[in-house]
Amino acid sequence: MKKQVNKFSHLTAIDRVKLSSPMQFLFDRDLLMGRILDFGCGLGYDVNFLERKGLNITGYDPYYLPKYPEIKFDTIVCCYVLNVLMPEEQADVLMSIAHLLKPGGKAYYAVRRDLKKEGFREHYVHKKPTYQCTVKLPFKSIQLNEYCEIYEYVHYNHQWNSPNNCIFCNPYRKISLLTESATAYAMFDGYPLSKGHVLIVPKRHISNYFELPQKEQSACWLMANKVQEILNREFQPDGFNIGMNVNKAAGQAMNHATIHVIPRYLGDTNAKKSGMRSVIPKQSRIDR
């Protein structure tokens, strides 16, 4: 299925002579700490202003400043980006920011609260179809008025999540999350079968993957795409096995659904066959 994109989203960037109001809010409260990234910075006016104030800030925008960051950041700010993106694009931004954020760091999302109409409209200057939508996030809201809401985000394992004893609902703080979305996160497996073995974990505490709501299942597979993109960049594997264990007969040991993304490397096994049909040894001889 082809991902829906808003190819004219960059046209919503505007010229400004002062800080955007969300960035001003964060600056006035000393929330812009350490190494800072303005994700979706548009024309870069906030970045230029804060650089002159002595802050260590970098801008990234897929259209105007397309060099993707290669380091991680203490603070990431994303102002009014999500409102002009399709849902799958929004999820990709959340996952990208989670991956670029240092453990213990904080990200801030500013979204508009003054939209009168959602959907496509003709841009009043460029005369191209741009898109806008209302966005609500499952993160802590630190500022809300009639124009804007600002959310504070920290990695899933740096917040209190559930009173149950499930280690996937309450992952250890020492774990470095690979990425995260609104409904799932990914981490390196504690007992990896290969270099870069990752678990995708739905945040909903449920044992059987097939009992997850369809939107949350879809979110897991969007994350699988993001995970393989990251692993390809960082480990250069030769292939992947992707699968899950559902119920005890299939080897499920923990009472929480997970999806395994296992990078494969040429020569990493002595077996003649190393694909999914080798999971049940006597079936590995069948060629199809």
TrEMBL record:
| GO MF | hydrolase activity
Give the matching Pfam families.
HIT, Methyltransf_23
Where's the HIT domain? 164-271
Would the keyword Transmembrane be found if you checked this record's keyword annotation?
no
Leader sequence range is none
What InterPro entries does its record include?
A: AP-4-A_phosphorylase (IPR052908), HIT-like (IPR011146), HIT-like_sf (IPR036265), SAM-dependent_MTases_sf (IPR029063)
Q: Does the keyword Hydrolase apply?
A: yes
Which parts form a coiled-coil structure per UniProt? none
Listed A to Z, the keywords are:
Hydrolase
Q: Which Gene3D superfamilies match?
A: HIT-like, Vaccinia Virus protein VP39
Specify the protein name: HIT family hydrolase, diadenosine tetraphosphate hydrolase
